[in-house]
């Protein structure tokens, strides 16, 4: 089975407070998502990378391909109203483009621009090794994640801490998340009628149909640029690579 990558890149980035979608904001001399894509360009065993964009962002998106290997990257302007819908539409496009349902797909947030080829390879190796060791064939896939470092609170309606949850056994899900295309497409299809409610990553869709994906330790540097202050942090982390 081959490996493909799917990059949901169709968000509006409203929490980041920028004028244009955050994934196109310049950072370290290039649009934010360009750094994301450059990491995938550094993993030759990924057959093709499909970038799911919002229909209105065509002009911004087209320029991304200038500095990437043309045969390995493609755009699909089929972004949806939610991240899950963008991924669902992108999976259909991958199948239309000749990917097999039994092929693997690595879904990765455009906004996680600190991803590296080494982390991508760590996930692929862990997933393929665990899948081949799993004789019942029950392992559906894997995701990068980090053990929760902080104390976890629930808040009441007044914004006061109401309870503290034990952090043992709790992980923060990152991306990439790696599954076979057909089961992931089917798991998302089952949630389409409810508007993908509660589906904030691929693993949550798979868990909802009974899967238990493998957690593979990611990196604290693999942040998703979400808040205005994340841009400076991401720029500083990118900068340290050139020193
Ligand atoms: O908003 P958030 O940071 O959680 O988005 C995660 C990723 O999903 C981003 O890369 C964003 O561009 C993408 N996304 C999308 N379609 C949407 C919403 C978000 O592709 N409708």
Structure description:
The chain has 243 residues and is an alpha/beta fold. It has one domain: Spore Coat Polysaccharide Biosynthesis Protein SpsA, Chain A, CATH 3.90.550.10. It contains 7 helices and 11 strands. A 7-stranded mixed sheet has the order 5-4-1-6-10-7-11, sandwiched between helices. A two-stranded antiparallel sheet has the order 2-3. The protein has a two-stranded antiparallel ribbon with strand order 8-9. InterPro entries: IspD, IspD/TarI, IspD/TarI_cytidylyltransf_bact, ISPD_synthase_CS, Nucleotide-diphossugar_trans.
Secondary structure: elements and pairs:
Elements: E1 3-9, E2 26-27, E3 30-31, H1 32-41, E4 46-53, H2 58-62, E5 73-76, H3 83-96, E6 104-107, H4 117-133, E7 141-147, E8 152-155, E9 161-165, E10 171-180, H5 181-192, H6 202-208, E11 214-217, H7 230-240
Parallel strand pairs: 1-4, 1-6, 4-5, 7-11
Antiparallel strand pairs: 2-3, 6-10, 7-10, 8-9
Helix pairs in contact: 3-5, 5-6
The structure holds cytidine-5'-monophosphate (C5P).
Low-pLDDT parts are none
| Secondary-structure content class | alpha/beta
**Element pattern in H and E:** EEEHEHEHEHEEEEHHEH
- Strand portion: 15-25%
Measured between the Cα atoms of the first and last residue, the distance is 38 Å
The major beta sheet can be summarized as: 7 strands, mixed
**Given this structure, which CATH class is correct?**
Alpha Beta
CATH architecture: Alpha-Beta Complex
Shape by Cα distribution: globular
Bound ligand species: cytidine-5'-monophosphate
Total of helices: 7
Mean pLDDT: 95
Q: Please name the CATH topology.
A: Spore Coat Polysaccharide Biosynthesis Protein SpsA, Chain A
What is the C-alpha radius of gyration, as a whole number of Å?
18 Å
Q: How many independent structural domains? A: 1
Helix proportion: 25-40%
Structure summary, number of beta strands? 11
How are the strands of the largest sheet arranged? 5-4-1-6-10-7-11
């Amino acid at each position: 089975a081959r490996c493909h990558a799917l990059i949901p890149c169709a968000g509006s980035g409203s929490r980041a407070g920028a004028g244009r979608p955050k994934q196109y904001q310049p950072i370290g001399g290039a649009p934010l998502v360009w750094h994301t894509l450059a990491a995938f360009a550094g993993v030759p065993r990924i057959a093709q990378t499909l970038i799911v964009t919002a229909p209105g962002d065509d002009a911004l998106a087209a320029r991304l391909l200038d500095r990437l290997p043309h045969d390995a990257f493609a755009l699909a302007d089929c972004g949806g109203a939610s991240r899950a819908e963008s991924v669902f539409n992108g999976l259909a496009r991958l199948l239309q483009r000749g990917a097999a349902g039994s092929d693997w797909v690595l879904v990765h947030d455009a906004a996680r621009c600190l991803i590296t080829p080494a982390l991508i390879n760590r996930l692929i190796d862990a997933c393929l090794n665990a899948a081949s060791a799993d004789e019942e064939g029950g392992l559906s896939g894997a995701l990068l994640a980090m053990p929760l470092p902080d104390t976890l609170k629930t808040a009441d309606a007044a914004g006061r801490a109401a309870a503290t949850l034990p952090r043992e056994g709790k992980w923060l899900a990152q991306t990439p998340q790696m599954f076979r295309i057909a089961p992931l497409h089917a798991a998302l299809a089952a949630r389409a009628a409810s508007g993908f409610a509660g589906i904030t990553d691929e693993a949550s869709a798979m868990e909802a149909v009974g899967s238990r994906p493998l957690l593979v330790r990611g990196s604290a540097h693999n942040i998703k640029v979400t808040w205005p202050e994340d841009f400076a942090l991401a720029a500083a982390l990118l900068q340290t690579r050139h020193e």
